[in-house]
Amino acid sequence: MSSRNDLARPIAEAHDLDHASAAAIASTALMIGEIQSFVDDSSPRSSFDPACLILYPPSRPSRPAEPVQQYLRRLARAAQADAADMACSSILAGQGSESDDTGDVALWLGSEDHASPELVLDALGLSDWAASGEVAVGAFAAPPGSQVERLLVEMEDLFSFRVQASMTGGIVLFFLIGRVSGAGWAGLAGIGTWSRLQTLRHIPVLLLKPPIAALSGQSLRPEFEQVRQVGDIIRAEHVQEALRAARDSLSGDASDLNPNMRRENRKRGRAPSPESPQPYVVEEKEGTRLLFPNDDSHPLEFEGLAGYIREFNRTHESRLHLWRRTRGDDEAARVLRYTCPDVLTAYMTLGGGTGRVVVESVAAFGPREKKSPHSESAFGVYRHLSQEIASVLESHGAVAVQSVVSLLGAYESLFVERCTSCERVLSAEGHVPPVVRVWGDGAWTAKHAGCRI
Questions:
Q1: CA atoms within 13 A on the CB side of 409
Q2: What is the pLDDT of residue 116?
Q3: Which element (helix H / strand E) includes 177?
Q4: What pLDDT score was predicted for residue 312?
Q5: In degrees rounded to 5, what are phi and psi of residue 402?
Q6: What SS3 class is residue 296?
Q7: Degrees (nearest 5) of the Cα angle 276, 280, 281?
Q8: Fewer beta carbons under 10 A from the terminal one: N or C of the chain?
């Protein structure tokens, strides 16, 4: 089975795509194959042609004529381009998907009848998988004036549906199927991610934990042996003698063992006399401290936000995405999602009554957390990060989107960059990476919260 990077490379070369777009298309083709073998690992999988971006079902129908292959290639490329214009990765999944890791691929089913979701799923070997979930038929509406809308006029009997099965959680398959005149049935297939947080909130936590019986005693034997060895060391006579001596010493004189001694001494410290030399304090001039790079020279308005997102996604590995809970939810469109692969996902709530786009709040999450923009992360490091950015936004006032995106980009090395003060990755207290970013001399520097003073 090919890896995503192995498949993304020929896709990028054949279609002149950036790595992120090619990897999204490759992920969809590979994930459909994985789902096909989810119920039965011996089940045949689909095949994928990277030159035409066409996915063929396991039944291996006869390949269509060259004009049909080129039409499907144009359809898949148009879906990728239109999705980029919408600041998402899949035109079928839309902006409601919580992941930008998957795209859309063309699908060829053959000349036999595939005029219903059941027939399509059966041809793809997904019937058993879909039986554990739900199939919802809907009406796909391509963006007005889009490339996909113009290409779909060449297809007849169009219908669309989505499938979400319980055995694969939040993964949702989307299909747009139609009949190519004089050829056969074809269309597009895409994958999105929808969380089920509302459902999980009503499930007792105990039921979400793996049963203890599932643990193998054989796999834990080395750990039990290590515990036994530690116990033997602690029970050794010379160790017990040292512990008894320490106990007697502590009961005899417990002075100088207060961990908060330095803090208490500072509180109780006597004020210096007038004759004592005074410490030199650097006075910071008002208005000289910069929390962000100056991006006010080109203020961004809401009308130019989509263009800014497209340009950013074209030139960066990280991705921006206008988040909507559902298609057509215009109010939620003022939430901008920033995704740094394998590091973090951040939701920016946008505002600006005068037309200039500013960021009102930021919520940071782990890269694989599926939470709403107005909740909080389950991980302490991302809660610390959200609190740090909130304090910066509060002290700075109205901050432009470009400035906050620049700040979030400085966290791409969050778990490997060392604090510039203590030269450590994890802080001595709390064991948290440096979540503070300080702008100066044209660059961001990393510091722990306790090291910035």
A1: 19
A2: 93
A3: strand 171-180
A4: 92
A5: -60, -35
A6: coil
A7: 130
A8: C
3-class secondary-structure state, position 379 = coil
CA distances from 80 to 76, 109, 313 (A): 6, 21, 13
∠ CA 112-118-119 to the nearest 5 degrees? Answer: 10
Q: Of 121, 4, 9, which is closest to residue 57 (Cα–Cα)?
A: 121
Tokens representing residue 377 in the block? 């992360």
Buried b vs exposed e over 310-327: b needs ≥16 C-beta within 10 Å?
eebbeeeebbbbbbbeee
280-to-143, 265, 289, 418 alpha-carbon distances in Å: 64, 21, 20, 29
pTM of this structure: 0.49
How high is the pLDDT of residue 34?
A: 86
Read off the pLDDT of residues 163-178 as tens digits, 9 standing for 90 and up.
988 777 778 999 999 9
pLDDT at 198: 38
Given a cut of 70, the residues of the chain with pLDDT beneath it are 1-2, 39, 195-221, 253-298, 325-333, 353-355, 453
* Tokens 């590091």 belong to residue: 343
Which long-range CB contacts under 8 A does 44-48 form with residues at least 24 apart?
44/125, 45/125, 46/124, 46/125, 48/7, 48/105
Q: Supply the DSSP symbol for 336.
A: E
